[in-house]
Predict the structure.
Amino acid sequence: LLPDPTCGPDVQKAAFIIEEGYKPLSYFQQKEKEGVYVNTKDITASSSTPVFPALHRMASANKATEGEVPENRKMVKYWEAHYAGGWVFTIVEEKFVIGRRKSIIAHGLYPYVAAHFIQVMDEPFGIGIAEILEALQEELNTGRNQRTDNINYSINKILKIRKGAYKDPAAQFRNAPGAIWQVERMDDAEWVRHPEVNSSAFQSEESIKQDAQNAVGVNDYNMGSTNSKLNDTATGMSILSEQSASRFKLEIQYLGVSVGEVGEQWNGLNAQFMPDAIVVTVKGNPNFNNGQEAQVTVTPEDLAGNYKFSVLEAVSAQDKRTQME
């Protein structure tokens, strides 16, 4: 997804939005039968999109044997000033324009919602968990690779042989069970011993993992770990649960805004495309029918207008504490 870079964190303020993806030929052909696209025969006759590893994975369902040409084609949708009733262009393989029409969505919004884990001002994309943990994960991987190398050196030792003592040392000093080595002097051949991994290397890994948990607000207790390092008393578990719950609550508040925007768009689409009346089930709402499940008839007129959708926060430290007790 490539929104207008000047739109800031609100994609609805973008002058344009570009969506890239891959679709099989059958998708375009079916859409042409439905009257959405035109001239899809040009796509069939074209050369295949360059094959990349990611495309191979996405096209695996359409491949009979290894080496066949992937059926998927690159598709680009260009949404122009959607809030002003702009046009939508569909381009395949960067040269075939198979769709050009006015947007039919009545709610006046781009059909996209930005969900930020951490919002960054003046940028359409925020900061996600992967970016937060990137440096820590690299540090963790480096330490594990070094320990693996050390173990390999310890198991597959290097043999040190006195220079010039033997013409073919590789054949004479064959490392195999039951092998016999004939030497002129007892110190002609010696193993080079590497020091074993000490406890500080493992302590460093634990420290990195703790930093990662602090960065995202998720600890071993939340993940169901029975790590003995955690405080297993009722008070200790309660403190851990309270701290994580407060962090989760903040994250849900961030994401709740985006979920609310999804609800607004969903409501607008229902008001535009739903039948004259439908029956829906309402349950779990303490402000309606005393919280009991009920069947309600809804019409498009009921959904018309501007509604505000919000997310009910379900994070509860008390529930965790009750389960623990």
User: Anything to note?
Assistant: DSSP finds nine helices and nine strands in the chain. The CA atoms of residues 83 and 104 lie 12 Å apart. The longest strand covers residues 16-24.
